Amino acid sequence: MSNNRGGSREGSGRKLKYNEPTKTVRVPVSKIIEIKNYLNEAEKQSFNDVASITLVDPTTLMHIPLASEKVAAGFPSPAQDYVDKTLDMNEHLIKNEAATFVVKVASLSMRDAGIEIDDELIVDRSIEAKHEDIVIALIDDEFTVKRLMIEGDHNHWLKAENPEYSDIHLKDGQEMVIWGVVTFVIKPFRKR
């Protein structure tokens, strides 16, 4: 007799309630109400997806060799050893030095857009945000990293790129300030 109940299904399972993994622990009965009250406060919506914000100081100049031909994902051509010019990473990543910041990410709310915890984002505050840009927004004095969705003249909301996180639709009295537009994600492919 076969059992058709097993296996995982997309979207099933417990959802992250506190934006981090949880663990089962034993607590004294006399502390249950106190702990539940604490957890209810922690459960209130928090937007702070940003660990740090640092102003860019492009004082160093480093020229990196730039191959003159594009590289395919297959086997490289032996002729591609020729380096035509060099690239300064400051010129490549920073368009407006005075308005550019590096933001370190503190949540997985944008995981499916390739942004993970401890990734560094290059953020330009001088760019006007457009529909579907990834932005740093300020809501209730907390920063969040989300995709800006614009529907009509007055309906703006923020989309999470991870089904375990909620989209952000402003409630009455809430104000959203688009602090900057994410232009690049800096992340290592090789862990040290």
TrEMBL record:
GO molecular function terms listed in the Swiss-Prot or TrEMBL record: DNA binding; DNA-directed DNA polymerase activity; hydrolase activity
Keyword match Ribonucleoprotein: no
Protein name: Translesion error-prone DNA polymerase V autoproteolytic subunit
Pfam families: Peptidase_S24
Similarity comment: family membership: Belongs to the peptidase S24 family.
Annotated ranges, domain Peptidase S24/S26A/S26B/S26C: 66-182
EC number: 2.7.7.7
Gene source species: Acinetobacter towneri
InterPro entries reported in the protein's UniProt record: LexA-like, LexA/Signal_pep-like_sf, LexA_repressor, Peptidase_S24_LexA, Peptidase_S24_S26A/B/C
CDD domains found in the cross-reference section: S24_LexA-like
Source superkingdom: Bacteria
Protein keywords: Autocatalytic cleavage, DNA damage, DNA repair, Hydrolase, Nucleotidyltransferase, Plasmid, SOS response, Transferase
